[in-house]
Structures are given as structure tokens and as C-alpha cells.
Amino acid sequence: MAQRLRTIAAMGTLYLVRHGQASFGAANYDQLSPRGLEQAQRLGAYWRARGLRFDAVLTGTLQRHAQTLAGIGEALGPLPPAQALPGLDEYDSLALIRAIHTAPLAKPDTPELFRQHFRILCDALAQWMGGTISPQGMPSWEDFSSGVHAALDLVRRAHAGQNVLLVSSGGPISTAVGQVLGTSPEVTIALNMRIRNSAVTEFSISPKRLMLQTFNTLPHLDAPEHAALVTHA
After folding, report:
1. pTM recorded for the entire structure
2. Which of 15, 97, 98, 172 could be joined to 168 by an S-S link, Cβ 3.0–4.6 Å?
3. Quick one: average pLDDT of 184-201?
4. Looking at domain 10-90+140-229, which CATH architecture does it have?
5. Pfam family example for this protein (predicted)?
6. Cα 44 to Cα 221: distance, rounded to the nearest angstrom
7. Any idea where the domains of the chain sit in the sequence?
8. Three-state SS for 134?
């Protein structure tokens, strides 16, 4: 019993946050929309109202990660300096699609074209994860997955007993969940497609392992008046 109590006391929580809504379909996707910024600010305000504070912050290196973190901090209050890790950057969805569909795709500005875009992306992800395609300018799946694993290992080794904020994208977050749960590639892809903008996934942190507590939650947007702020892309 004493050992169990010591283990519980040593645990912290890792909060993995997907970036707010970016600019899907625009020339530069890597830019939060006004709605995406509001999502981040509402998350920060939600945590502030509950007195949550963070001991460490990790992010990817993309602009939408930095903008999401800034929006959270604007409403939450001062955050520790962020450690930016390239291993938390998203895969290149356009490079993946081009690897299996060489003809240009129409801009996904209708529901059917939107669904087509993500059907092709899921197929490309499966082939990339299976090692049958090597999209131009992208790492192998093994290297991408290793970057996520290294970030989780850093959290486990350096931040047990602390609250850690990690701001990234759907690909790395679903990969992290897949690694912790030992899911198949097909399940990891399905998880990836379900993660909503500014959604929170929580892992408990102990020196030995990470354990899933929650997945893809939006407690800061659960009021009916915030329904229009729930987005996926």
C-alpha cells in the first residue's frame, strides 16, 4: 500500500492539445483561423477558472502550434517557456496524397470533395505506415513515430509528478495514443481522423509509463452556445 501511494504521488498529467482550427483549403494551412484562436482562448479561460497551472510546456515547431499556445496563454496567464520539438510536427498531408494520387485534386470546398480528400489521405497514411510509399520531403513512418516516442519519453523521464502541456497536431497525438495503447495502424488512423480542433487528451505520468486518462475532449466548448466552435480540420 505504501508503495502504491508513493506511485500515485509521483504521477503528473500530460495534457495533449491539438491546435485550433487552421486554414484548411487556403494557400497557407499553417495559420489559425479566427475561430481557431477563439478555441484556444476558451481552453485557456477554462483552465484558468479551475486553477490549473503547468510546470512545463512542449510544442511542435509549426506556426499553428505557436499560435494555439499563445491563445491559451493569453487567457490562462503566464506559461513556462516552451520547448519546441520537431518530433511533434504534423506529417505533410499534401505530400502523402500526391504520393498515391498524382492528378491535382479539386479544392475541397463541398462535402463530397471534403470526404474524398480524407478518404485519399487515410489510404496514403496506411501505405506510408506500411512502408509501401515514401512521400517526397517526408520522414519514414518509423522516424516520424520515433520523434513522438522521444517526446513522450522526455515527459516520462523529466516530468513525473508535474503538469505538462503539449501542443501539437492530430497525427502526433494519435500516434502517441497508439503507442501508449499499442493500437494497430488502422486504429491509429481512425483516432487521427476523430481528433477535433483544440481537443484535450490526457495521460497520467509516472516514471515508468504513461497511461491514457481521456481522449479528444472539449470541456471548454460543451455549452450549447459554443456548438459552432466544434471543428475537425
Report:
1. 0.93
2. 172
3. 98
4. 3-Layer(aba) Sandwich (3.40)
5. His_Phos_1
6. 12
7. 10-90+140-229, 92-137
8. coil
Return the C-alpha torsion angle 88, 94, 97, 102, nearest 10: -150
Q: Compute the distance between CA of residue 47 and CA of residue 192 in angstroms, rounded to an integer.
A: 24
Could you give the CA distance from residue 166 to residue 173 in angstroms, rounded to a whole number?
Answer: 9
> What does the alpha-carbon distance between residue 19 and residue 29 come to, in Å, rounded to a whole number?
12
- Sheet with 200-205: list strands edge to edge: 82-84, 56-59, 163-168, 12-18, 200-205, 210-217
- Whether 57 contacts 158, CB under 8 Å: no
Please state, in angstroms and rounded to a whole number, the distance separating the CA atoms of residues 67 and 72. 9
Over residues 119-172, the pLDDT tens digits come to: 999 999 999 999 999 999 999 999 999 999 999 999 999 999 999 999 999 999
Helix (H) or strand (E) holding 180: helix 170-181
